[in-house]
Amino acid sequence: MSRIFNFSAGPAVLPLEVLQQAQAEMVDYRGSGMSIMEMSHRGKEYSAVHAEAMANVRELLGLTDEYEVLFIQGGASLQFAMLPMNFLPKDGAADYVNSGHWAAAAIKQARLVGQVKVVADCEKEIPARVPEAAELSWTPGAAYAHITSNETISGAQWKSFPVTDAPLVADMSSDILSRPFDAKPFSMIYAGAQKNLGPAGVALVVIRKSFAEKGSKGLPAMLRYVTYVENQSMYNTPPCYSIYMLALTTRWLKQFGLERMHRQNRDKAAKLYAAIDGSSFYRGTAAKHCRSDMNVTFRLPTEELEERFCTEASKAGLKGLKGHRSVGGVRASIYNAFPVEGVDVLIGFMKDFERRCG
Ligand SMILES: *Cc1c(COP(=O)(O)O)cnc(C)c1O
To answer: Are residues 152 and 77 in the same domain?
Structure first.
């Protein structure tokens, strides 16, 4: 067996132990004679998996009974639309912080539904950053306020979350469960699973029950949060296998410990940033105070060198380093499951490449 070092931004690396567990249980899930994909979602085996996935998320995020854990298909991108459809009234406005590509994508969808106030805009700034608290001009009476905790493409991450009177909503697709944080200030958190939680096919939504109940009643059932709340995300057939993988991944994370995972994530990123800062050949693209621990972005002196860097790295078993097509450069996505050793190997490769081409 040979596993590469997978720096892909998403779908992304999963813990080897989780994959091996899934492999062992694939054909005959715990003596049922079926795989988890082939059985009724209302049966006892799958019901237990579904409940465990919810309980693990609840425990890891330290959620009180005020919150519900939901599993919804359609990825984070459906949440861009579902959120305003539920909570942005015709005569109201919602606040959005435009911190980059994904925030802008959320804004674009919300504008199809109602009035959006952009309370700060640094989408196109170089170096990439999230705004300072003092720059945020919140709208009194806003229906909700939306932030993107980690901009996966530019590599800018909120290190502490802003405070506002409106219900706070965050897209945490690329850094959920990478660090402990207080969920209490949030009315809703959502995340496509394929970066830090499991495979694609499911989005995790954590929502305050009282907020969900305020959602528009005129929507089709599948677009209303209360439908998922009232039916434990089993109004229709859930994406069983994706939720099963999420259950295994969160079980693995609970065993490792979230605090310990946070320290490991910080150390991995710090090592990589130190290698970038210690060289005049590599140049980080996010502002230092908000550099992401999940997506480390940098450039080389020319695009030709970047191309060559990624090609040679790939040949050396370091895959998925090419920056997003909209910005170019290099991006090392080092989510929870990305091994420490892979960061060391990348740093070694960077030093060698600089020696040869710098
Ligand atoms: C990947 C990503 C998305 C899009 O997720 P999908 O599940 O593909 O819709 C949205 N927001 C952020 C921050 C992301 O990283």
So the answer is: yes
Query: Residues 175, 195, 268, 322: which is the catalytic one?
Result: 195
Q: Is the pTM of this model over 0.85?
A: yes
Kindly state whether residue 198 falls inside one of the protein's structural domains: yes
CATH number at residue 322: 3.90.1150.10
Mean pLDDT of 319-325: 95
Q: Which amino acid is at 15?
A: P
- pLDDT of amino acid 342: 98
Ligand 1: distance of its center to the CA of 72 in Å? 14
The residue among 205, 239, 255 that closes a domain is: 255
pLDDT score, position 80: 98
Neighbours of 191 (CB within 10 A): 26
* Residue at a domain's end among 221, 255, 289: 255
Establish whether 252 is a catalytic residue: no
- 73 ligand 1 Cβ < 6 A: no
Between the CA of residue 221 and those of 82, 136, 140, 237, what are the distances in Å? Answer: 11, 35, 31, 14
Tally of structural domains, the chain:
2
For residue 92, tell me if it sits in a domain: yes
* pLDDT, mean of residues 58-73: 98
Question: Is residue 4 situated within a structural domain?
Answer: no
Asked if 148 contacts 100 with a C-beta cutoff of 8 angstroms, the reply is yes
CA-CA-CA-CA dihedral for 52, 61, 147, 104, to nearest 10: -30
214 annotated active-site: no
Residue 11: inside a domain: no
* Ligand 1 centroid – CA 203 distance (Å): 9
pLDDT band at 47 (very low <50, low <70, confident <90, very high): very high
- Tell whether 195 and 287 lie within a shared domain: no
> Residue 351: what pLDDT?
98
Catalytically annotated residue among 95, 171, 175, 293 = 171
Ligand 1 centre from 267 Cα, in Å? 25
Residue 346 lies in domain: 258-357
Does residue 2 have a pLDDT over 90?
no
Contact (Cβ atoms closer than 8 angstroms) between residue 71 and residue 93: no
| Neighbouring-strand partners of residue 150 | 157
- 143-160 in b/e burial notation, b at 16+ Cβ within 10 A? bbbbbbbbbbbbbbbbee
Q: What is the pLDDT of residue 214?
A: 98
